[in-house]
Predict the 3D structure of the following.
Amino acid sequence: MSRAALLVLADGRFPAGGHAHSGGAEAAVRAGRITGGASLEEFCRGRLHTAGLVAASLAAAAVLGVRVGELDAAADARTPSPALRAVARKLGRQLMRAARATWPSDELDAVAREFPKGAHQPLVLGLAARAAGLGALDAAHCAAYESVSGPASAVVRLLSLDPFEATGVLARLAPEVDRVADRAVEAARGVVAEGVGVLPAASAPLLEIGAEGHAGWGVRLFAS
Amino acid sequence: MTTSGVRAFARMVARADGRGGTALPILEGEGPLAPRRTRGSGGEARVMLVGAMGGPLGGDVFAVRAAVESGARLRVGSAAATIALPGQSKGAARYDVRLDVADGAELHWLPEQLISAQGSDLYVTTRVGLGAGARLVLREEQVLGRAGEQPGRLSSRLTVCVEGRTLLDQELACGPGAPGGWDGPAVLGGHRAVGQLVVVRPEFAWEPVAARVVGEGAAIMPLAGPAVLVSAVAADALRLRRVLDEALADLG
């Protein structure tokens, strides 16, 4: 594998549309739950261990070759908010387009045909990692890191937070991101043996409830 | 010396009696789990789960099974809140609930709150399997700590399958030792009561429910199938019940 391929995939400038999403941070800022660096860190930590862990496990399982249809249904069951399911599919479609252009592969083409409206983004991330010659742990790292980097950069814009402070949050969370990625790979290996029922299902009620409220706003800075 | 906890099992089977009513050919429990038949209405049988000893305490293993057979209708409640307490034995307590609702059957599973007392450690799983045309109203409410105390450790997983397809799989972990951020702005944000209401109705397949926010901390969310989840957080048990009741009334 190429270590640099991981940097390409994980780069915030990879043209997959993620920059337009705050990962629930916009709703949390409006509700007064994120007011600065400390509450951003707690937000990111909570998101990492819930949605981040689930996404990382799905991504790792996709790299290990678990059937995409099963993973997509498992992602639906772990995403009760219809607004978040729609976002996950939209981001999946955008990532699929970028990945097919970047790392052309028959497998990506086949999944794009099977899911014309987009598969859940973490699975596409896993398939993109596979097409780039990366492994399950790489994909899990990407997904886990994305679960915190999106909100951190969004809050810089939403609150005019000092970018150094936001980056400090990400650096402090790095050891936990590693642990979540490890756990995700372990769970994904379990899926190969025991089926998608053993995928983590950690939930974050305020992310789900907040997403439904946010989807109804007339004016907003971020799409989710 | 290790003390082992209590093991308790309760089970019930609801069966259509052929005269428009519902019989309970099996209704049994032991120790802390005592199911009692109460007066039903219409074709529905009613059962009250009476907690005879309190708990679960650390190390206890409780299991409840309910099967509602084709055409039967069952409503289950509990006489009081369940309080998870610390026990003499080390290790977590477990409480496993398995519900099967056959084709054309109906289950209302509406227990009182689960309260996670300081120092307790409980892992709850609720798995519901429904057949074609089955109907369900299921409520789960978790209260983190009794008045003014810190919560114990509580993990709760809820899985709902309709015709073998998993429509909902959600786990919530909170309290000391839970993964970081559980009380932060992404997960519970300082709320001390959290609840889920799952409603499965075959007609949702052709009359989909619109997603909407209810009150301050709740949303009605149609799942990817004939089911709806109401997810809610609130400051306390009373406010949580109020918002879940409001959402259920809203679903008609």
Q: What stands out?
A: Chain B has a mean pLDDT of 94. The first strand of chain B starts at residue 7 and ends at 16. Chain B has one domain: 7-195.
